[in-house]
Specification:
With 301 residues, this protein is α+β, with helices and mostly antiparallel strands. It has 8 helices and 15 strands. Strands 1, 2, 3, 4, 5, 13 and 15 form a 7-stranded mixed sheet that branches. Strands 12-6-14 form a 3-stranded antiparallel sheet. The longest helix has 15 residues.
């Protein structure tokens, strides 16, 4: 690996270090936008839908404040963006009718707050379902129950991060492809090993390390906890490169920290961002419940 790149290895099983919530950029400086004048519980008019889609093509994160959505209403709103994906194998769901609108929470099987993380990977930088041959276009979360403090979600703008790389590094990583897999994700976050069913359903895939956004034409780094190594490079070298790139991406100027308010609906573009959850205080006491939907995307290039 070139001397232009320095590797950093995080401690096994502990989320990589990153900026605190107070160090990061504002939503506007990050490149996101807040939309305050829409009631998403009602079907969008054609003009409203065109506006939302136009903003989504320009901004990696959209924030809608003060929403009060049922699962049915969130499902209907999500359909404006395309085909909704279901939950992955063995994810707990609480609705047989709307399994694509599933719950992200700190609750155990009995519905009680728990400090035992059921989904450790949520606390590592990742792009949703990059372990699919056709990964996710966008993800949205709707805040249903929030703890009194903490539980923020951080987003990193991988297009801005790519643009800021030295030209020598851009030349070095151009054309490289990374292996993404569900199994590798479980290993790298120190979580429960993937089951044979999970491995069979989602075998490893490879995607470009630098992908082109199909709407803007901008290049963005495509990486995260699901990416394990680089095709055609020694495993250790590829892992070191990926660690270095994720360290670069999480610099404070590329990161927005969303401090959740009741009723927030936040959606983001997985093609040009990575994200992670931050833990909240007294996770065994306070509930954190959000409803999640994911829209199927296209093959990265």
């Amino acid at each position: 690996m070139s001397a232009t790149i320095e590797a950093h290895r995080p401690a096994h099983g502990i989320p990589p270090s990153g900026p605190s919530a107070d160090e990061t950029a504002s939503l506007e400086d990050f490149g996101g936008i807040e939309i305050a004048d829409l009631d998403l519980s009602r079907p969008l008019t054609e003009a409203q839908r065109d506006r939302v889609m136009r903003l989504f093509r320009k901004h990696p994160v959209l924030v809608f404040r003060g929403q009060n959505l049922t699962k049915d209403q969130q499902y209907t709103f999500t359909l404006n963006f395309g085909e909704i994906e279901g939950a992955h194998v063995n994810r707990l769901v609480d609705s047989k009718n709307y399994t694509p609108v599933h719950t992200v929470s700190n609750l155990d099987a009995d519905g009680n707050p728990s400090e035992i993380l059921r989904e450790r990977g949520n606390y590592y930088w990742h792009s949703d379902k990059s372990y699919h041959a056709v990964p996710s276009l966008l993800t949205m979360l709707h805040a249903v129950e929030l703890p009194p403090k903490g539980g923020e979600t951080q987003f990193a703008n991988t297009a801005k991060a790519y643009s800021a790389l030295p030209q020598a590094v851009k030349a070095e990583i151009e054309g490289l492809r990374a292996i993404h897999s569900w199994e590798a994700s479980r290993i790298q976050c120190g979580g429960r090993p993937a089951t044979p069913e999970q491995i069979a359903e989602r075998p490893p895939v490879d995607h470009p390390l630098v992908r082109v956004h199909p709407d803007s034409g901008d290049k963005a780094l495509y990486l995260g906890n699901h990416a394990s190594h680089i095709v055609g490079r020694p495993t250790a070298d590829g892992q070191a490169l990926l660690r270095t790139m994720i360290q670069h991406v999480q610099q404070p100027q590329f990161v927005y920290t969303h401090r959740w308010q009741q009723g927030d609906l936040v959606l983001w573009d997985n093609r040009c961002s990575v994200h992670r959850a931050l833990p909240h205080e007294a996770m065994g006491v306070h509930r954190r419940v959000l409803h999640r939907t994911v829209v199927k995307g296209s093959v990265p290039y």
